[in-house]
Amino acid sequence: MKRYFFDVVGQNRSEYDYRGRELATVEMASKLAELIALDLGIDPHGGRTGWTVSVRDSQGREVFSMQVRESELIAA
């Protein structure tokens, strides 16, 4: 199991994940990041549209990132 951290990063501020989650594979981390991005995208006010979910490993290196998209684009 590896620990992954899921930071939500915007242009003017960031929300850091200091606890992280232990997951068996990078694919599981990718699925969780996608779920977080989808959840943030359904905000009716679009407050986090254009932000990214940045996934880091335990050394602080970014493994990948996923963009938060508008809910209309998700439903299309």
Structure description:
The chain is of the alpha+beta class. It contains 2 helices and 5 strands. The chain has helices spanning 26-41, 71-75; strands spanning 2-9, 14-15, 21-23, 52-56, 62-67. Strands 1, 2, 3, 4 and 5 form a 5-stranded antiparallel beta sheet that branches. Strand 1 and strand 2 form a beta hairpin. The longest helix is centred in the middle third of the chain and has 16 residues, at 26-41. The model has no long low-confidence stretch (mean pLDDT 90).
Features:
76 residues, 2 helices
Poorly predicted runs:
none
Share of residues in helices: 25-40%
Q: Averaging pLDDT over every residue, what do you get? A: 90
User: Per the principal axes of the C-alpha atoms, what is the gross shape?
Assistant: globular
Helix/strand order, N-terminal first:
EEEHEEH
Number of strands: 5
Write the layout of secondary structure elements.
Blueprint: E1 2-9, E2 14-15, E3 21-23, H1 26-41, E4 52-56, E5 62-67, H2 71-75
Antiparallel strand pairs: 1-2, 1-3, 1-4, 4-5
Task: Tell me briefly what this model is.
A hairpin with a 4-residue loop joins strand 1 and strand 2 (14-15). The protein has 2 helices and 5 strands; from the N terminus they run βββαββα. The chain is of the alpha+beta class.
